[in-house]
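Pasting as-is:
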Amino acid sequence: MPRRRGSSALAWLVALLVLAGGGWFGWQWLQARVQHERSVETQAAQHVSALEQRIDTLQQEQRAQAKRLQQADTTNRVLRDELLGIGQRAALLEDSVSQLADPERNGAQTLRLDELEIVLGLAEQRLRLAGDLDGARRGYALAASLLDGIHDPAWLSLRQALVQERAALDALGADPRAVAAGRLQAFAASLPALPIAVAGREDATLPWWRRAFARIVDVRHADTAVAIEPGDRAAGLAALQLELTLAQAAAERRDRDGYRQALARADGWTTRLWPDSPQLRERRAQLRELRELPLAIDLPTLGTTLEQLRAMRVAPN
């Protein structure tokens, strides 16, 4: 019995030792396994980090490459623009050289054409803006003398255009504004000659007692339209003179509407200041004629010579 117990205890001891040794080896293997997996994970993380850094580097290089391509494109555009500018300057230089080499475009003729253009422009603007018909005629005469100094046959058509424009300018006669102003002054000067009262027209048809007392008593209707009182006549004459002055000012400005309106108001004052008579009807007819007078200068050919000169100077030979 004691040997069996000892052998069983020894067996149990051996078994425990075997189990303890197996557990220790198992724990060691597990630790090695864990360390191996950790090292593998660390290496994988390092590989991933290296790949990310590589990708970042590639992206930076790609952006730098794109920027260099953009700069190269910009440089190419600038170079292309500079080449185009050089080509244009070369063309301008060639044109300038060809003009200088052309015997028809010498300096004296160019200066004379410049002077001719300035004179034509001044003459046209003097007529358009100031209505100075005589000044415009003198300007066109000076332009004709300048054009006569150019003996090139190429400017023959311009000379013909200037002759036609001068003929149309001379055919205008007097300035319509001056004509209207002169006739208006003559009309104003003729107004004081109008009779204030019409006498002798009804004396034969009046009763004897009215003819007898006509030199003593003046009988007239209370609602008569003609101003008789000195104060009324003075005010009416002042208003009429004001309307005629306004008509004169409108004629100077070539304001046709203001001119006609002022004369219409003046016509109304004539019927208020003088009774009906053949002289008054004649004056009113003159007023109607004055209202229809033109004030503006109508010249369709004005400026055609200047336009043709500019077109011929711009057009290539």
